[in-house]
Amino acid sequence: MSSIFEKGREVWGKVSGSLESAMDQAQSEVGKLQTQAAGAPDASKARIWAKIGETQAKQEADQEKLRSSLLDQIAEANTQLSQLEGAAAGVSGSAREKLTRDIDQVREERDKALTKLTTNLESEIAAAENEMATLQKEAADASGGAAARIQVRAEWARIRRDTVQQWLQEVRTLQPVAAPVSSVPPIR
Description:
By secondary structure, the chain is mainly α. Helix content is about 85%, strand content about 0%. The chain has one domain (about 1-175). The protein contains 4 helices and no strands.
């Protein structure tokens, strides 16, 4: 069973690392573009904000992939826990000890995925709040139609923040599916 965990951990490390790197790069680019937009003439701001929108769309797609992958990992871990705990209830001795180690390892991986998902969602909320503040400042400095367009983008950021906050609340309610092995008596 350990080789499956090691292979899964290796693959997951590559996938999550590349997604996180792409998201960090996109966030950095968005920050630079927002700085450019703040000092640009109104005629250039539309082009810069269009580029920001494209970059954010790519970033959101990467975030969705990461969330989906983490949720799949959590669901798979819960399934494995149920199966391993069921098997542990039917054995004793060294077989039970091995299953207990495997259960602890699966729990640890699941908990890491939950932590990573929670951290990712909290980061998304902070980014949306930062974007809202930046856009509201931009809107205050702009006039007429430009101010209205900026307010729409700020509202979109608020909606994204609120949605991610709801997801975060749901993730925080995720509970372990099965009882600890120590509470399941062995069959003799």
